[in-house]
Amino acid sequence: MKEEKSKFAEKYGPDEVPDPLIKEQILQGTQKDEVACAVAFEIADKLGVKPSEVGKTADLLEYRLVKCQLGLFGYKPGHSIVEAKLPENDKIIDAIKDGMVNDRLPCKTAWEIAARFDVHKMTISSACEALKIKIKPCQLGAF
Q: What global pTM score does this model have?
């Protein structure tokens, strides 16, 4: 049975159209109607646009965002590959708690904490899983 295609574009108004430059980059750099998180960020960097604009264009093209760099979505079969694990450095936990907004840690802040402590991004998402802290909003607009 064929899987029903998602309707990512529905979260935008009916008059919204994909940005032509971003669309061109997405079509050149992707396969199978999917855009990997890392590719979306490369496109944003190359074009000097916000990652959210690349995410929006992907949605308007009905492309699925996959392989979140925090391990939160876009992996098969279970969608998420992040596992709950506290970091050895308690200062990372303090930074996560200090970076929270409305009981959540923004994705961008998770990336900043990873860079500040020179750890993999999934170290931060693993800590958040262990601490029962949701990471939101996504820089690409996936969640």
A: 0.89
Beta strands in 1-143 (DSSP E): 34-36, 64-66, 104-105, 134-135
pLDDT interval class at 5 (50, 70, 90): low
- Taking CA atoms, 20 is separated from 70, 92, 122, 129, in Å, by 28, 40, 32, 37
Maximum alpha-carbon separation in the chain: 49
Mutual angle of helices 20-29 and 51-60, in 10-degree steps: 80
Cα separation, 63 vs 56, whole angstroms: 10
Whether 66 and 77 have beta carbons less than 8 Å apart is answered as no
Extract the tokens encoding 117. Answer: 């402590």
The two three-digit tokens of residue 69, written as one number: 């760099």
* Per-domain residue ranges of the chain: 8-66, 90-135
Angle at which helix 121-131 crosses helix 107-117, to 10 degrees, equals: 120
pLDDT tens digits, one per residue of 97-136 = 999 999 999 999 999 999 999 999 999 999 999 999 999 9
